[in-house]
């Protein structure tokens, strides 16, 4: 799966959150692209990049309940009516569209009756509508609140959550999570200090066993269902 990350931020180099995300990118299968308000976009080149991607991620800070102007400028230049749906070919059909959005407010502010009195899902509705119009699959939004208040353990968890959001097959089921971790844990363990490597290898073994147990359980449930249907 090829993932294209389009980042809109007016002060990207000065953003600790965005630099954290950039440093957390997986080493493969992800293309990172920063959008700037000063750029003149080559629509054909941008559309070609979209065609090549399986998963497209818009990444930006929430500015007055919307994305920064550079994303809107990119959309106006690239997502033309003819390209998205006008010729009824739908070149983005079956691709996945997701959003990584950062805010300076706590998560509880984004709810009815909260400080913002609106949910993140409601704010992302225009992008969800775009996905629907283009016949894309809309992914649940990854919202990161008050990054600068996260402790080290929370930041480490965010690295995992972010990488899974970019590369883990949808939907976010237990089976897909386990498969994702099983595929990546050996490489993670290999990077550990020698004193910690034995513990890491034990975690890999335990997770592999759990995955085998889950697959056996699912097979048993499928057999039971077939018998009930008979």
From TrEMBL:
It holds the Pfam family Flavodoxin_2. Gene3D superfamilies: 3.40.50.360. InterPro entries: Flavodoxin_fold (IPR003680), Flavoprotein-like_sf (IPR029039), KefG/KefF (IPR046980). The lineage of its organism: Bacteria, Bacillati, Bacillota, Bacilli, Lactobacillales. This is NAD(P)H oxidoreductase YRKL / Putative NADPH-quinone reductase (Modulator of drug activity B) / Flavodoxin 2. GO terms for molecular function: electron transfer activity; FMN binding; NAD(P)H dehydrogenase (quinone) activity. Signal peptide: none annotated. It comes from Levilactobacillus zymae. PANTHER family: GLUTATHIONE-REGULATED POTASSIUM-EFFLUX SYSTEM ANCILLARY PROTEIN KEFG. Residues 1-156 form the Flavodoxin-like fold domain. Keywords: Oxidoreductase.
């Amino acid at each position: 799966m090829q993932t294209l990350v389009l980042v809109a931020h007016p002060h990207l180099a000065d953003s600790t959150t965005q630099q954290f995300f950039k440093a957390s990118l997986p080493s493969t299968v992800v293309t990172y692209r920063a959008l700037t308000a000063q750029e003149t976009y080559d629509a054909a080149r941008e559309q070609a990049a979209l065609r090549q991607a399986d998963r497209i991620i818009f990444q930006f800070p929430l500015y007055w309940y919307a994305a920064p102007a550079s994303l809107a400028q990119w959309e106006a230049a690239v997502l033309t009516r003819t390209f998205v749906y006008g010729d009824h070919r739908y070149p983005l059909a079956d691709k996945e569209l997701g959003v990584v959005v950062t805010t300076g407010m706590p998560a509880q502010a984004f709810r009815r009756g909260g400080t913002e009195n609106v949910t993140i899902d409601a704010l992302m509705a225009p992008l969800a509508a775009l996905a629907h119009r283009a016949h894309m699959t809309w992914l649940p939004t990854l919202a990161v609140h008050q990054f600068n208040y996260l402790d080290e353990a929370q930041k480490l968890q965010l690295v995992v959550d972010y990488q899974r959001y970019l590369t883990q097959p949808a939907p976010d089921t237990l089976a897909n999570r386990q498969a994702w971790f099983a595929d990546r844990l050996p490489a993670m363990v290999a990077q550990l200090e020698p004193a910690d490597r034995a513990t890491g290898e034990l975690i890999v073994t335990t997770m592999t066993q759990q995955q085998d147990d889950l697959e056996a359980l699912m097979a048993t449930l499928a057999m039971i269902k077939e018998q009930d249907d008979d």
